[in-house]
């Protein structure tokens, strides 16, 4: 993939976590996507970091697309109702595929098992050659440092054999992350 990234999936927690820096950086990422004319695609909830990023993007005049599932709707999780586009899918795998199809790349903010699942799906697709779309890690307060150590361990033990198969970029600040996105 070459050229300007026009649409980015933002994967992050539907919780806030226990560090206010997570929400601060999520809001800054949403705002910067909007100000740079990059559409944000996200999980559709108006909760936690995902709601924070979407609200900031909307407040800055951005275009935001939400993709959720019928199961999330059934749990009555607060959904975002001010989006340009909102879609409800039959399940998590369909949701991930839709988000993938609508995005030129992926921003990974702090999150839980859902975020980790979305991240490793994209990494697996990169590994087997299904995609070269880039992953950008927002390493707020070193949140992703344990994951990086796991990757080093996997390389050392022979399970992460070809790092060149992956298109991953890390940043410690929102400004650094957006510079990488804009210069990709």
Concise summary:
The chain has about 180 residues and is of the alpha/beta class. It has 7 helices and 7 strands; from the N terminus they run βαβαβαβαβαβαβα.
Can you lay out the helices and strands and say which pair or pack?
Layout lengths: L6 E5 L8 H16 L3 E4 L5 H12 L4 E6 H5 L10 E5 L2 H11 L2 E4 L4 H16 L6 E4 L6 H12 L11 E4 L2 H9 L2
Parallel strand pairs: 1-2, 1-5, 2-3, 3-4, 5-6, 6-7
Overview of this protein structure:
The chain has 184 residues and is an alpha/beta fold. The protein has one domain (7-182): Rossmann fold. The protein has seven helices and seven strands. The protein has helices at residues 20-35, 48-59, 70-74, 92-102, 113-128, 145-156, 174-182; strands at residues 7-11, 39-42, 64-69, 85-89, 105-108, 135-138, 168-171. The chain has a seven-stranded parallel sheet, sandwiched between helices. Strand 2, helix 2 and strand 3 (64-69) form a beta-alpha-beta unit. Helix 1 (20-35) packs parallel to helix 2 and helix 1 (20-35) packs parallel to helix 7 (174-182). The protein is globular. The model has no long low-confidence stretch (mean pLDDT 94).
List the main descriptive attributes of the protein structure presented here:
single chain, 184 residues, alpha/beta, Rossmann fold, 7-stranded parallel β-sheet, 7 helices, 44% helix, globular
